[in-house]
Amino acid sequence: MNIYWDSFKTFFKIGMFTLGGGYAMIPLIEEEVVNKHKWVSKEEMLDLTAIAQSCPGVFAINVSIFIGYKLRKISGAIATALGTALPSFLIILAIAIFFHQFEENKVIAAMFKGIRPAVVALIAVPTFRLAQRAQLNWYTFWIPIVSALLIWLLGVSPIWIIIAAGMGGYIYGRIAV
Fold this sequence. Notes:
By secondary structure, this protein is mainly alpha-helical. The chain is built from seven helices and no strands. The chain has helices at 3-16, 22-36, 42-54, 59-102, 106-133, 142-154, 158-176.
């Protein structure tokens, strides 16, 4: 099998059937690249997810680039990135072309209203799975809660949260080891 074509098709399918953005893609990405194709391990997927979250850019594209790079360096990263981005591009292009015909359609509006709660669930499930894999315990569970509250209530930039968490982890590592 051609790994470029396989990885492109895999990420195209993930991009095509995922609503709710990058975080909603995590279960599909895990199923395909960890369980089905075994391109990365569960531990590697957790690390890739953490790295992708801390890098600028679109989360799902970042994950796909890291996986593609692991498979076949630059050309693998290009194949997976295109596979991830192309479905969204094509869908948005079609919406832009035909939106004026549907913007007042009550059926379409009702469909989007029904999709919203499902998207929340699609984002919540990977969040809980990430928390489990990160091995949160009674000593560390406060970190994501405080971080979320700082971002939500006080408007603290996620960049400062990431920097503070990285520095805290470094300091803890230096003291604990």
